[in-house]
Amino acid sequence: MYHLVDLDGMEEKYYQSKYEMNSITLGICLNLKTVCFYHGTGSFFNSKTLAEITSYGECACKSLGSEIKKVLKQYTKKRIDSIYQKVNVLE
To answer: Which InterPro entries does this one have (predicted)?
Structure first.
């Protein structure tokens, strides 16, 4: 069973004290929708589980990156529209 979660340092220490766990940190490059950072710790990955969890994490990063990019584009468009409205009112 895999849990894709974003733990802070204190949570990670707590769970590591209670359970054996692996940890993978992935960083995403928003413009390219690719993983740009990968770091893993833990002792009970095998090649199959490592490939599966890496794939899940990569998909999660890509989905999150796409969503962040979409939200930023919407925000930028709203800001530009707001500026144009203010300029038109002043004219």
So the answer is: ExoRNase_PH_dom2_sf (IPR036345)
The verdict on residue 45 lying in a domain is yes
Residue ranges of the chain whose pLDDT lies below 50: none
The residue range of the domain holding 82 is 9-90
3-state per-residue secondary structure call for the chain = CCCCCCCCHHHHHHHHHHCCCCEEEEEEECCCCEEEEEEEECCCCCHHHHHHHHHHHHHHHHHHHHHHHHHHHHHHHHHHHHHHHHHHHHC
Provide the residue count of the chain.
91
Is there a domain that residue 57 lies in? yes
pTM, 2 dp: 0.58
Q: How far apart are CA 33 and CA 48, in angstroms?
A: 24
